[in-house]
């Protein structure tokens, strides 16, 4: 089944990736480290900073961005892949959407195993569709599934940078290193950036980062930059339980402030040059 990646009426012809919109994959080796929480929190923070932001649920097997945000989307990526709707028609507004100070989401479908088993060409088409859609935004966050399976890496390849989320759990650290190593081999143009989540405190977070950076330096010959440190905060679970974006409910709780700092450094330091005149602002 083909995917209907129709472009909007006034969207420009997709350009080469010489000067791309900024696509950030949110990745990890191990699951449950906080990728989806960070994706939603950073998206909320970018929106608050006035950036046109799209959050894509790229966890094709266990999609749950919708659960984190408490939204019940009418359509999703599963419908896009089935050929029922065009990619841009699956875009769902959150907190008013981009037009009203919020952000947009391309939701996945929880428990949609079919998405995890997409053939190569379909993943490539999805990635190409996202790249074209990204031209309408300042930032696209791509919340990936954990691990280094082929489809995860194929989607990651569509990104400009990969924010690799790590906790101080040793398994999370070794798996994050494995992700970075595989990414370097498979998609060398994607720059890994490390984010520490669920840190007991900033010093412990810094130590976790240094351990990963040192392993990368020793065995891979480069040192990934630190994207930020997010502390462990009970409000994260509470906001998830109440299905309300943390940036709406507790924008000043510590984890939200930490995620806001990541968003600020993303805007300052990670942003690829953007040719605004080539953007569609329909
Ligand atoms: N900074 C944090 N402080 C406390 N709990 C967190 C934090 N980040 C994530 N969590 C919790 O960890 C669990 C997994 O988070 P999630 O974002 O779903 O992980 P992933 O997407 O990597 O699988 C959730 O229950 C979430 O509430
Ligand atoms: Mg997740």
- Indicate the overall shape: globular
Q: Into how many domains do the coordinates divide?
A: 1
Bound molecules: adenosine-5'-diphosphate, magnesium ion
Look at the structure and give the mean pLDDT: 86
Rg over CA atoms, rounded to whole Å, is: 17 Å
CATH class: Alpha Beta
Per CATH, the architecture is 3-Layer(aba) Sandwich
Helices and strands, in N-to-C order?
Answer: EHEHHEEHHEHEHEHEHHH
Helix content: 40-55%
Number of extended strands: 8
Straight-line distance between termini: 29 Å
Fourth CATH level, the homologous superfamily: P-loop containing nucleotide triphosphate hydrolases
Number of helical segments?
11
Strand ordering within the main sheet: 3-4-2-5-1-6-7-8
Enter the CATH topology name.
Rossmann fold
Low-confidence stretches: 1-20, 271-282
Largest sheet: 8 strands, mixed
Classification by helices and strands: alpha/beta
**Percentage beta strand:** 15-25%
């Amino acid at each position: 089944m083909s995917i209907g990646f129709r472009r909007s009426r006034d969207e420009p012809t997709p350009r080469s990736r010489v000067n791309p919109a900024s696509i950030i994959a949110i990745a990890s080796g191990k699951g449950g480290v906080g990728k989806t929480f960070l994706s939603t929190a950073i998206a909320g923070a970018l929106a608050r900073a006035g950036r046109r932001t799209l959050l894509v649920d790229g966890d094709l097997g266990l999609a749950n961005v919708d659960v984190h945000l408490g939204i019940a989307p009418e359509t999703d990526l599963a419908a896009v892949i089935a050929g029922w709707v065009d990619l841009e028609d699956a875009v769902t507004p959150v907190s008013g959407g981009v037009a009203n100070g919020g952000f947009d989401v391309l939701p996945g479908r929880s428990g949609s195993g079919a998405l995890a088993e997409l053939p190569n060409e379909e993943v490539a088409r999805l990635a190409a569709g996202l790249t074209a859609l990204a031209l309408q935004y300042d930032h696209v966050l791509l919340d990936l599934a954990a691990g280094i399976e082929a489809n995860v890496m194929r989607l990651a390849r569509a990104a400009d940078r990969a924010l690799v989320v790590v906790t101080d759990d040793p398994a999370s650290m070794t798996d994050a290193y494995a992700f970075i190593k595989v990414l370097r081999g498979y998609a060398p143009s994607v720059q890994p950036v490390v984010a520490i989540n669920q840190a007991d405190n900033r010093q412990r977070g810094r130590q976790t980062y240094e351990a990963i950076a040192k392993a990368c330096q020793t065995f891979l010959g480069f040192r990934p930059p630190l994207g930020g440190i997010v502390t462990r905060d009970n409000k994260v679970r509470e906001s998830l339980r109440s299905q309300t974006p943390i940036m709406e409910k507790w924008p000043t709780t510590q984890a939200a402030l930490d995620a806001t700092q990541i968003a600020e450094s993303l805007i300052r330091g990670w942003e690829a040059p953007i040719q605004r005149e080539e953007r569609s602002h329909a």
